[in-house]
Amino acid sequence: MLTPVTAFPAFLLTDADGKTVTEHDLLGHPAVVYLARHPG
Amino acid sequence: MEALPEIEAAGARLVVVTPQSAERAAGWRDELRLADSLVIADPGRTLYRALGARRPRPLWLLRPQVAWAGVRALASGERVSVAKGDDTLQLGADVVVDRDGQIAFLHLAADAADRTPPAELVEVVRGLTSPAGGTAG
Questions:
Q1: I want to staple B78 with a disulfide (CB 3.0 to 4.6 A). Which of A25, B66, B73, B133 is the partner?
Q2: Closest-CA residue in chain B for A26?
């Protein structure tokens, strides 16, 4: 059984400039996160 | 991203996640003029999997409503740019995260056209940033 995700998961992802995204980039303000379906 | 002004006016930041390489994500960011937004490249779909975003089986593309949607998109002039390694089955998701990183809203797309209206996302943000939302200050 899957556990519902309640906190936005933070991983060592990179932004479009290749810089690592940190919690500082995501927290401290609300965010609308749009996960694109696939390229196009 | 025509809703970007409303999202920012409501006090939120737009974060776009794409299942592409950073190089392709940068091109997409520039094309959509999202220079002030955070664009995350997630070619391994780590975030997609963690949030439970759907990725249907290939035969899903043969469902009549899906095939019809594809025909309509092509007829309207929509074009899809696909490069080697792109995952064309991955579906998207819409998320609103509060200032502490808690998910306030999550919608997992059931098909390619299934997205949350931007106005609805803005309303969720306003609920978070209003005094009654408890996160202001």
A1: B73
A2: B101
Is A3 part of the contact surface with chain B (CB cutoff 8 Å)? no
Number of folded domains in chain B?
1
H-state helical runs in B10-89: 22-31, 46-51, 64-75
- How far apart, in whole angstroms, are the C-alpha atoms of residue B115 and residue A36? 10
Q: Do the domain assignments include residue B71? A: no
Block means of pLDDT (10 residues each) for chain B, length 137 residues?
A: 88 92 89 89 90 82 72 71 68 93 93 89 92 56
Whether B30 is in a domain gets the answer yes
Amino acid at B135: T
pTM for the model stands at: 0.79
Q: How many CB pairs under 8 A join A and B?
A: 153
ipTM over 0.85: no
